[in-house]
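Much of what follows relies on a compact textual record of a protein's fold. The record below shows the convention in full:
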Amino acid sequence: MDRMLDFLTSGKRSDVTFLICNNDNEKVKVKAHKLILRIGSSVFDKMFEENTQDEYELKDFQDTSHFNAFLKVMECGVNICATIVYI
């Protein structure tokens, strides 16, 4: 699990970037791994099947900390209360 967290927080081997607006209305890049997201979510599976983009702007998340917590659960299966590093 520590290795998975390291891959998420460092962006190692990431193959997708999400653009999320933070509280200052700035777009922040958050890196992730398509395969892991596809395995964990039929929504991501369909999204990545239909679109071959490497970058997606998500408007449903208005705070990067919420999306990072979501990714942490999806990719690492760990407690969302732990700190995550912004990429």
Observations:
- The domain at 2-76 is CATH 3.30.710.10 (Potassium Channel Kv1.1; Chain A).
- The first strand starts at residue 16 and ends at 21.
